[in-house]
Amino acid sequence: MAASKFPNTQYTSEQFVESNGTILFDFSGHTNKVCLLRYSSSPGNQTTGERLLAKGRRNCGESRGAAALREVQEETGYPCHLHPVQMSTRAPGPTETSHVPDQARSYPDLTEPFMLTTRVLGGDGTNIKLIWWFIAEIESVGPESVTGEEQFTAHFFSYEEALQKLTCKDDRTVLLRAISLVEGS
Prior knowledge:
Layout: E1 16-26, E2 33-40, E3 47-52, E4 54-57, H1 64-76, E5 80-82, E6 85-89, E7 105-110, E8 115-121, E9 127-138, E10 152-158, H2 159-165, H3 169-183
Parallel strand pairs: 1-9
Antiparallel strand pairs: 1-2, 1-4, 2-3, 2-10, 5-9, 6-7, 8-9
């Protein structure tokens, strides 16, 4: 039996967790803004000061897009929808046959994941977390306030402020890519 010519690692369902994250944009003002979460380690404890992007685990039977929207609304309190962007992907387009070359092509109005983060969990490398990233837009919200999960506080920031406030370098990379897709640059 031949081995694959491509290096790979296989994980059983007990070894991986699939998460879905969302960059939540507010396009309603003069300046476009993005939502960051401020995390406190547990209810009642002081805030750690970490600034994060909304993400969480996908439930069994749930689509990635639905999980991304559910998680961002649970954590921020803001209802939203996936925001279509033009982007390149190696996936065939919606009307193409499966016999297209495996190379990146640009398509308009996609609401697919725009980035994938893989994170090794634990020191032995036998567990992994996959984070599929989506772009979402806040629904118009009336004067009533919204509340998300107790350990998170959601705030909207300008792009520059958000990039400065994010705790993790990897989150900055994700946010920069989302901004470039939304702004068409």
